[in-house]
Amino acid sequence: WNTEADGTGTDYADKATIKITENTNLYAQWTEKTYTIAFNNNGGTGNMSSLENVKATERRKLPANTFTKTGYTFAGWEDENHSTYDATDTVQITVDTTIIAKWTIDSHTVTYNCNGGQVSSSNTDTTFTEDVNYNDLIDLTKTAYKEGYDFDGWALSTDQTNEIQTQITMTTTPITLNAIYTDRTAPTTTAPTAETTTNTIML
Question: Which of 26, 64, 171, 195 sits between 20 and 30 A of 203, alpha carbons compared?
């Protein structure tokens, strides 16, 4: 309490006992509550300082995001009630609040290089592509066609005949896979059969 509305008079504590000698008006004095905005990286990495002393009557601009998450792109914020905010929005709160980072998974292009062949016997394109989300398995069941050759699988280089891939997980960069073939007309070599000789010894 205070004897002046603007707080410039005599202060009295709440519930205090006072003595007066004349008619007196007391005016309630108010301190505006303040709150804290904390930031959650939601599976990402890094830390961001909280916004302190945020008044209920003010709108506070959200700071630039400094969190990162491998394989994901920052997509704004949401609070614990699932209200969403753009990266540079202003917010108004009436309770302590945690603002949570939102992420969108990245996808990258897989290029299938037919490596001297083509997509199929009827499709003469020499490459084809698909987009794959980060950390998803790449489809290695796709095939390519080369006249006179058997398709063996996909490798990361054009001549890795001994390193045909059986499983690849999408990384954070585009990938090129190269078709590997076996020439079905190539001559095969057969190891000569050793001759056996039987000797008869007369006793």
Answer: 195
